[in-house]
Write a structure and sequence with these properties.
The complex is a heterodimer of chains A (251) and B (338). With 251 residues, chain A is of the alpha+beta class. Chain A has 6 helices and 13 strands. Chain A is elongated, with a radius of gyration of 26 Å. Chain B has 338 residues and is an alpha+beta fold. Chain B folds into 2 domains: 77 residues, no CATH class; 213 residues. In chain B, 31% of the residues lie in helices and 47% in strands. Chain B is rod-shaped. The chains are: A alpha+beta (251), B alpha+beta (338). Strand 1 of chain A pairs antiparallel with strand 1 of chain B.
Chain lengths: 251, 338
């Protein structure tokens, strides 16, 4: 390589290195993550309180489903460990999940182990902060997505340089790790209708029919270690089974 | 050669200096934002205290509007069904059951017989005997429920439902038989056997179904089990139409003049009216009101990708409050790998 090219390369490398600081210590990263989480919780609480003060936080006419942190933890951990390969070279194994229902967010702390697909023994451990998001009711099942946010390499068996490389790969592929984590399904069954088979006993004939129910997620709150999902619920009009027009309308 | 080398060095040095100068000039714009200062332990503590204070305030606000929450049965899963929703469920289900319920009576026979006597030379003599049979071919009544009244007790929801027998009609065969007795009567009247088919409408009547639903917490769900002390008895009254009375008159008027006078002594209309005015009882079994499962409960299992989760559900209690019906359950999680 010519001297001029070498000099130019060194110069660009020097310039690039000016933008890269040393990696933060895990303690510093944890403090920063905790502060960010607390600020988000405070912001959420203030917004919810303001909503309540404006009379917009209506709970009375909604079905309240409260689920304890401990049960959500057991359910989240039931399908763990869960492995996924990102960028074709890192195997991410989500090992455990710890929910925290404080503030207004259903926060999650996931622990994962990252290893190289091609290199035996090179591992790093990862802390990923996330939350339960997008609560949906479908087919009588209440589910929530696990959304991932902040993460930090807690320790790396291959040194600082490898930890930085792991961070950049994980950052670029956080969405695919998120997609690999299954939805949390809350263990509640919500019926979409109440059916009656009809009756024909002696001189009495009652037509079969069903009462359609409209139930949807209205509001999600957390309070005192419990996740509360408040469902908008309304009973429709009784639909006789022999009334195809009404049945089509309800269906 | 030496001169060419000097030129190269000079050129390289120039490029390096220019690049460094460029980076130096652009650096203030290009450099990333410096990360915020690492929060100290006391700052974190202050944030956590602020969060907890707001959390407590929100909790108080929710408790103020959800007063029954403080006494609700605690469990891994707590389900609170608004009283307003339970009320509308019961109203709609019970009203739906009774809406358009039909009561149909068929082939009921009513019988009346008697004799016609008269004074002849200070002695009472029998002119003849009559038999009036009413065969109810079919009578149908349709029920219409009113607005139920629902009230919540400790573990019972009471319900009172007005039910109106709103409309209906009936069809009957009336058979009138007359058998003369004695020479005179036989000469004047002879025997008669006439059958007429008549119709009528069911008389609207109001009834009330009273009872309640006991709230039973079973595994994973709350069921409202009907408790109605007795069956609902509805009396079907058929009011014969004008045409029916005319048909009866025709039977009498078809006789010869002397005989007509005899038969007119039988108050066929009155007898017939007496027969049908009692009405016909129809019993609506209390079982018609089926148990209503509250549409929010705890599942017994979950299917996750590659894993089946068996859930052991143990009810921790239920409570009926003026605003909510609360149900609590502890849930044990057992993973069954597939």
């Amino acid at each position: 390589m010519s001297l001029a090219r070498r000099l130019a390369g060194w110069t660009l490398a020097l310039a690039a290195l000016q933008g890269c600081g040393p990696r933060e210590s895990p303690e510093a990263a944890h403090s920063r993550s905790r502060a960010a989480s607390l600020r988000a919780q405070i912001e959420g609480l203030e917004a919810t309180i303001a909503k309540a003060e404006r009379g917009e936080l209506v709970t009375a006419d909604r079905i309240a489903i409260g689920v304890a942190e401990e049960l959500v933890k057991n359910l989240l951990n039931a399908s763990l460990p869960l492995e996924t390969v990102v960028a074709g070279r890192l195997r991410v194994s989500v090992e455990s999940a710890q929910p925290s229902f404080r503030g207004t967010q259903a926060a999650l702390q996931l622990r994962a182990v990252v290893s190289s697909v091609g290199l035996e023994g090179a591992t790093a451990s990862l802390d990923i902060a996330g939350s339960l998001d997008r609560f949906e009711l479908e087919g009588g099942r209440l589910r929530a997505r696990v959304a991932l946010g902040y993460f930090a390499v807690r320790e790396s068996g291959a040194g600082e340089l490898a930890a930085g490389a792991v961070e950049s790969v994980i950052r670029a592929n956080l969405a695919s790790i998120e997609a690999a984590i299954p939805d949390l399904e809350l263990p509640v069954q919500l019926e979409e209708s109440i059916a009656f088979a009809g009756l024909a006993e002696g001189p009495v004939v009652a037509k079969p029919g069903a009462l359609p129910l409209q139930i949807g997620v209205g509001l999600v709150l957390v309070a005192d270690g419990r996740l509360w999902v408040l469902l908008d619920a309304a009973a429709g009009r009784w639909q006789p089974a022999d009334d195809p027009a009404a049945a089509a309308e309800s269906g | 050669m030496k001169g060419r080398t000097s030129v190269k060095w000079g050129l390289a040095a120039g490029i390096a200096l220019a690049a460094a100068a460029g980076v130096g000039l652009l650096w203030p714009r290009l450099r990333p934002e410096p990360p915020p200062a690492i929060p100290t332990e006391s700052e974190l503590q202050a944030l956590a205290e602020r969060r907890d204070a707001l959390q407590a305030r929100l909790g108080r606000m929710i408790l103020d509007s959800e007063q029954s929450l403080a006494t609700a049965p605690v469990g891994h899963v707590m389900i609170g069904i608004p009283a307003s929703f339970t009320r509308s469920l019961l109203e709609e289900v019970v009203s739906g059951l009774f809406h358009g319920m039909t009561l149909t009576l068929r082939d009921i026979d009513v019988h009346k017989q008697g004799e016609v006597t008269t004074e002849v030379l200070f002695r009472r003599r029998t002119l003849g005997r009559y038999v009036l049979d009413l065969h109810l071919r079919e009578a149908t009544g349709v029920l219409e429920p009113g607005r139920p009244e629902v009230a919540f007790g400790d573990d019972l929801v009471t319900l009172s439902l007005p039910v109106r027998l709103a409309e209906g009609q009936g069809r009957s065969d009336i058979r009138f038989r007359w058998k003369s007795e004695g020479l005179l009567s036989n000469v004047v009247c002879g025997d008669t056997d006439v059958t007429k088919t008549v119709s009528g409408r069911v008389v609207p009547q109001d009834h009330r179904l009273a009872g309640g639903f006991r709230i039973v917490a079973e595994e994973g769900a709350v069921t409202l089990v009907p408790e109605f002390p007795k069956d609902l008895r509805v009396r079907l009254h058929v009011d014969p139409a004008e045409q029916a009375w005319r048909a009866v008159q025709e039977v009498v008027e078809a006789q010869r003049a002397g005989c007509e006078a005899v038969l007119k002594r039988i108050d066929i209309e009155g007898i017939l009216g007496g027969l049908v005015s009692r009405g016909f009882d129809v019993t609506i079994p209390r079982e018609v009101v089926a148990p209503v499962r509250v549409p929010a409960g705890v599942r017994g299992s979950l299917d996750l990708p590659g894993v089946r989760v068996a859930l052991e559900v143990k009810a921790t209690g239920f409570k009926v409050s003026p605003d909510r019906l609360w149900y609590g359950a502890d849930v044990g999680v057992e993973v069954v790998r597939e």
